[in-house]
Design goal:
This protein has 102 residues and is an all-beta fold. 0% of the residues lie in helices and 64% in strands. It has one domain. The chain has no helices and 10 strands.
Length: 102
């Protein structure tokens, strides 16, 4: 059994017991979150597609980690002008462990 959920403007395929990184969600490590924007649920031969979401379907997950991704360096330069700019960015994320698909 698997489902397609939407969170943080992206879509993810999830199954019970799987782990995934999503855009930062509010909550502490160990908290339970509910993903209610379920776009598709597949259980064996039966597939339910939502328009846009499947009514009554939800996915429960546990927050495993709240952290930042690896640093991405941004370097800008304009030739012959002496303009150089170096910045770094670390995107925050939330790691989830999927408990069940209801």
């Amino acid at each position: 059994m698997y489902a397609i959920v939407r969170t943080g403007g992206k879509q993810y395929q999830v199954a019970a017991g799987s782990r995934l990184r999503v855009e930062k969600l509010a909550g502490e490590v160990g908290d339970t979150v509910e993903l209610s924007e379920v776009l598709l649920v597949a259980d064996g031969n039966e597939v339910k597609v939502g328009r846009p979401v499947v009514e009554g379907a939800r996915v429960t997950a546990r927050i495993v980690e709240q952290d930042k991704a690896k640093k991405v360096l941004v370097f800008k330069k304009k030739r012959r002008k002496g303009y150089r700019l170096k910045k770094g960015h670390r995107q925050p994320y939330t790691a989830l462990e999927i408990k069940e698909i209801l």
